[in-house]
Amino acid sequence: MRDVSIIGIGQIEVGEHWDVSLRDLGARALLAALADAGIDRPDALYVGNMLSGTLGSQEQLATLIADWSGLRGIEALKVEAACASGAAALRVGVMAVAGGIHEIVAVLGVEKMTDLDGEEATAALMTAADAEYEGIHGTSFISLNALLMRRYMEDMGVPQEAFAGFPINAHANAANNPNAMFRQPITRDTYSRAPMIADPINLFDSAPICDGAAAVILCPTERAREFSSRPVRIAASAVATDSVALHDRREPLFLLAVQASALKAYRQAGIGPEEIDLFELHDAFSIIAALSLEACGFAPRGEGTRLAADGQIGPRGRLPICTMGGLKARGHPVGATGIYQVVEATLQLRGLAGANQVPGARWAMTQNIGGVGGTAITHILEGQG
Amino acid sequence: MRLAPHWRVRAQRLQLRGEVCQCCGERLFPPRDVCPACHQPADKPFAFCGEGTVYSFSTVYEAPKGYERFAPYTIALVRLKEGPLVTAQLTDIDPSDVRIGLPVEMVTRVLREEGEDGMVIYGYKFRPVLEREAAREEARA
């Protein structure tokens, strides 16, 4: 297997892009990444996207975006794994380059969620869950996460205020990210006064519905310096799965797929959690941030919120997370999120993260989760100085 | 109109019919061809008694399309007496009275209606175990 590196990145500001179509969002991020790498025509394009069929009545999305980016003719495929579609596309790109199938591969994550009203988007997001046994009962994706959060609070004796540290950190970091959706800091008071959207999940425990696109360009590490003075090596790429339905798990409060993908990734990279300098985790909901920290070995069970409460997750803390705003405040355009995480980690490892720069960052972990932990995809990136 | 998907699960939705694995004894709901516990084929029908307790719950205010008419409603994970968890709505109870551990029983109710000329889809919901509460009160009196 060949070692794979990132030689170019591109991203569009996350937000409500009423004036930009899905294809144009994708093409713009893709062209920005190709320009960053100095590449005209990659060998292949893999597109992570969850909802183009459901919300946009559009499939063959990768083919469409290849054409609209001036790349008509190349290999182009869409990859889907619900909210983990972005990282899933990266996984396919890594396999293509590592396996010697392609030299230069472009990976794009793109999502357009604001073309329809909120009820349609809410119903569409529910396709990440088990349609016949969860969706039919009127369950919303938020309420599935609320089920987890309520039981967690009861079993672990954790009050709701304990989760405030996650959105406070996310918003503080997003304030310094020009591509973030919400750039205003929030306080503990803002959090405690926020309206409930699915008790016990309040407005600040949940990532927003939005549009976005981000892209990375890959090549074999041995050729990376031809294209970039600061390439970033992909030291690990690992996927694991669990049941799609929450009710099919023996212990819903432990995310087994998240743990399995992290353990595989640590093994591939040859490092442990103590060596990770920053962690772009999947904070679609505050409860998932806490459960991810526990499943990945950063906190004992029931203590995921304590890292946040103790101020250890800021850019200068012991374990910086969501360093550019995370899903909560940068925004969560679902199929694009996994690539935003990798773009941001690459900025950190290139030393270009501005006010949120993690000093001396060498190892960055990104983790993208599909559904309520049904698919977990972990990448570990290493800076090359 | 989606007819077959609802028709083929009628025994599950209306009778809470699942399966028991003949190899390891695991009770399965919903039924599936391979037992997730021991990975052997599962094919023996098993009717659940319909009683259980609330494992967790959340009230939905912003309903997905097709469920707006029912909002607000409470979604729960119910731990069935025989073991499995199921996702279902709670009914016949004020959302503020729901708590973890509440004993509940299965009832058949409308899950959704697909417009004026569409189908009415029935299935299981869970309500507090009323009869026994009443009996207990009587015993106390």
Task: Describe what this molecule looks like in 3D.
- The complex is a heterodimer of chains A (385) and B (141).
- Chain A is an alpha/beta fold and 385 residues long.
- Chain A folds into 2 domains: 4-117 and 210-227, Peroxisomal Thiolase, Chain A, domain 1, CATH 3.40.47; 138-206 and 236-383, Peroxisomal Thiolase, Chain A, domain 1 (3-Layer(aba) Sandwich).
- Chain A contains 14 helices and 11 strands.
- In chain A, the strands form 2 sheets. In chain A, strands 3-2-4-7-1-8-11-10-9 form a 9-stranded mixed β-sheet, sandwiched between helices.
- In chain A, helix 1 (22-37) packs across helix 3 and helix 4 crosses helix 14 (334-350).
- Chain B has 141 residues and is mainly beta.
- Chain B folds into 2 domains: 16-47; 50-141, OB fold (Dihydrolipoamide Acetyltransferase, E2P) (Beta Barrel).
- Chain B has 3 helices and 8 strands.
- Chain B has helices at 4-7, 10-15, 130-140; strands spanning 17-20, 27-28, 44-47, 51-60, 73-80, 85-90, 103-113, 120-128.
- In chain B, the strands form 2 sheets. In chain B, strands 6-5-4-7-8 form a 5-stranded antiparallel β-sheet.
- In chain B, strand 1 (17-20) and strand 2 form a beta hairpin.
- The longest helix of chain B is centred in the last third of the chain and has 11 residues, at 130-140.
- The model of chain B has no long low-confidence stretch (mean pLDDT 92).
- The A-B interface holds A 118-120, 122-123, 126, 132-140, 142-143, 146-148, 150-151, 154, 196-201, 243, 245-249, 252 and B 5, 9, 30, 36, 55-68, 70, 73, 75-77, 84-89, 100, 111-112, 121, 123, 125.
